[in-house]
Write a structure and sequence with these properties.
Layout (H helix, E strand, L loop, with lengths): L3 H7 L18 E7 L2 E8 L7 H12 L7 E8 L2 H11 L19 E6 L7 H14 L4 E5 L7 H5 L7 E2 L2 E2 L2 E3 L2 E5 L14 H13 L8 E5 L6 H9 L4 E6 L5 H15 L2 E8 L3 E2 L6 E2 L6 H9 L3 E5 L3 H9 L3 H4 L4 H20 L10 H7 L8
């Protein structure tokens, strides 16, 4: 009579073909059943449909056939559970714990998260972000800005806010300016100090900005992404599944390529493109009033068509917009009825309409008179 111990000993020579270790040592040998000359072996495979399962079956059978008393071998294969796979990974890493499951934020909440992105730098993405935030706050919404541009942070200066956030019980309180809650790397390092970090540290910083900051009950969280589609953008998208994405571009021909890259990033990271804002659309001469398209025209519409979303606004190039950014006075607050201020306020209203209504969230008309006026097409402000 063959014994279970004899079977187990014979199977010591069976290695997992992918990992190269004995199946017993890595928890794949789930069970052995010996009945007279019939030996049943239950083996766990790493994933359903493992391409090497036939080889595992053959190796187990060939290892047991020479054992005296074994007349027939049956091999049962079944996939590992999530927990068993995690244990296997920990064993292979020398006992190190398996990596923590990816965290998600604002899932199932009433907060509309909008990532503000651009394919390249210098298009005024941060200027658009702060002005949209201030315009939404002026309409009565509760708004936060996450400055995710860890290397090139500029939100604190543009919002005219400085200082260090207060922390207690592993929780960080954001600073506030123009009725907007703000968190930025600029609050933690001097403005002239370069942040020389690689991917994992950036990922952790974004996780802390989302998870350890007490945002409270927000209607909108705007995330100012760094240019392009690098580590920070990918991390933010992974933490905020299903968030919306707003693309900022300038009018020149290169806008089409910018839109394509931004669109592909959205597609691959489950962000939902909602619209394009074209910045620096034209310059109006302060002396003669003539309008000049310094950067060409049509790029914003082209980008919107490529992404299949609306062009939400065309913002003229005016010195006051730049000056307001340098001095911490967003133009929608300092000169709301100027051409740029009007365009950005209208963009904020359209962003609210597109995001809050499309996902089945009613506009909070009764609670906020400023919002009610905007929804009715008025230009009321709540300061």
């Amino acid at each position: 009579m063959v014994t279970e111990e004899q079977v187990r000993q014979a199977l010591r020579n069976v290695l997992d073909p992918e990992i190269g270790k004995p199946i017993e040592d890595i928890g794949m040998l789930q069970g052995i059943d010996v009945q007279d000359g019939l030996v049943r072996v239950h083996v766990l495979i790493t994933i359903e449909g493992c391409p090497l399962k036939d080889r595992i079956t053959n190796d187990v059978t060939n290892a047991l056939q020479p054992v005296e008393g074994v007349e027939r071998v049956e091999v049962e294969l079944s996939p590992m559970s999530e927990g068993q796979r995690a244990e296997l990974v920990a064993k292979l890493r020398g006992g190190a714990p398996a990596p923590q499951q990816q965290r998600s934020f604002f899932v199932g909440s009433d907060t509309t998260v909008i990532a503000v992105a651009s394919g390249k730098g210098g298009v005024g993405k941060s200027s658009v972000t702060v002005n949209l935030a201030c315009a939404l706050a002026a309409e009565g919404y509760r708004v936060g800005v996450l400055d995710a541009d860890v290397w090139g942070f500029s939100i604190p200066r543009m919002m005219g806010v400085s200082g260090k956030p207060v922390g207690f019980n592993d929780m960080i309180l954001p600073l506030e300016s123009h009725g907007v809650k703000i968190i930025s790397m600029g609050f933690f390092v001097p403005e002239e100090t370069p942040v020389i970090w690689r991917g994992p540290m950036l990922h952790k910083a974004i996780e802390q900005f989302l998870g350890d900051v007490y945002w409270g009950d927000l209607d909108f969280l705007l995330a100012d992404l760094p240019p392009g589609t690098g580590d920070v953008s990918i991390s933010l998208a992974s933490f905020l599944p299903g968030a919306s994405m707003l693309v900022v571009t300038t009018p020149q021909e290169a806008a089409r390529k910018v839109a394509e890259r931004a669109g592909k990033m959205a597609e691959r990271t489950n962000l939902r493109p909602i619209g394009v804002i074209e910045n620096m659309s034209w310059f109006v001469c302060p002396h003669c009033g003539e309008r000049t398209s310094i950067f060409g025209d049509g790029g914003g519409q082209e980008a919107a068509d490529t992404l299949g979303v609306p062009l939400l606004a065309q913002v003229p190039l005016v010195p006051e917009l730049r000056e307001g950014g340098d001095e911490g006075r967003p133009i929608v607050a300092s000169d709301p009825d100027s051409p740029a201020g009007t365009a950005l306020r209208e963009a904020a209203r359209r962003v609210a309409q597109v995001t809050r209504s499309k996902v089945g969230k009613p506009l909070p008309l009764a609670a906020r008179p400023g919002v009610a006026a905007a929804a009715a097409g008025g230009h009321a402000h709540q300061h």
